[in-house]
Specification:
This protein is α/β, with parallel strands linked by helices and 207 residues long. 28% of the residues lie in helices and 24% in strands. The chain has seven helices and nine strands, in the order H-E-H-E-H-E-H-E-E-E-H-E-H-H-E-E. The chain has helices at 13-21, 41-49, 62-71, 85-89, 130-139, 155-158, 163-172, and strands at residues 31-34, 54-58, 76-78, 100-105, 117-118, 127-128, 142-153, 173-179, 196-203. The strands form two sheets. Strands 3-2-1-4-7-9-8 form a seven-stranded mixed sheet, with helices on both faces. Strands 5-6 form a two-stranded antiparallel ribbon. Helix 1 crosses helix 2 (41-49). The longest helix has 10 residues, at 62-71. The chain is globular, with a radius of gyration of 16 Å.
Length: 207
């Protein structure tokens, strides 16, 4: 898929399938969320596996979230800017703080925005790129022993911009990194100019 005029990349079908396959086999989530749902493919794949679960979908694009809602009347669909911490904490999404079992996200990682983003509400001062900030906001909704799976740019691991944020995640969560490009039979470059990876984050019981 080529980027749109807003520099968005939608999730490829094979990557969505891969993401779902990385959920622990004995894990049965009650609530599943995607906070940058786009066309809804990640939650659709999840619904095929866990049809009895409750689904929470959010997207900044009103047109996208309306289309997802029309096809999934039982899902809780919202239209908030997930990069605006105050907006999401004071929205109806606050009902899901610390209670979501499984979060599946392909957060925005635009090549146009190189600015550092502050992690609001964090115990220490951290700034990072957009993608990692989106992960941080998502983790506010993850319950103890819940699982978050994200598709991220490889720069999240190696860049100076994301170094402090990554260190925080490794300290407070169980983090597993899976390089998509090293998996057989998958395209080497899924997104233009970006090597991509999956990051599986499990909230530690002590948190």
């Amino acid at each position: 898929n080529l980027p749109s005029m807003t520099d968005k990349f939608y999730t490829e079908d094979n990557i969505a399938t891969l993401l779902i396959s990385k959920v622990p086999s004995n894990f049965n989530p009650n609530i599943i969320a995607d906070f940058a749902v786009g066309k809804g493919i990640l939650l659709e794949k999840a619904k095929n596996k866990w049809s009895a679960s409750k689904f929470v979908a959010n997207d900044l694009c009103l047109e996208s979230i309306q289309a997802v809602q029309e096809c999934n009347l039982n899902w809780n669909c919202t239209n908030f800017n997930f990069l605006d911490y105050d907006s999401i904490i004071n929205s109806e999404l606050q009902l899901y703080l610390n209670i979501i079992d499984l979060i599946l996200i392909n957060p925005p990682f635009s090549q146009k925005d190189k600015k550092y983003k502050k992690w609001e509400g964090c115990s220490i001062e951290i700034k990072s790129g957009t993608a990692l900030q989106f992960v941080y906001h998502s983790l506010k909704f993850l319950k103890k022993n819940g699982v978050l799976l994200a598709i991220l740019p490889e720069g999240c691991i190696y860049s100076k911009r994301d170094e402090k944020g990554m260190s925080y995640l490794f300290e407070h969560y169980d983090v597993e990194i899976i390089k998509i490009n090293e998996i057989e039979n998958l395209p080497k470059f899924i997104y233009q100019k970006e090597n991509t990876l999956l990051k599986k984050i499990k909230r530690k019981l002590k948190w």
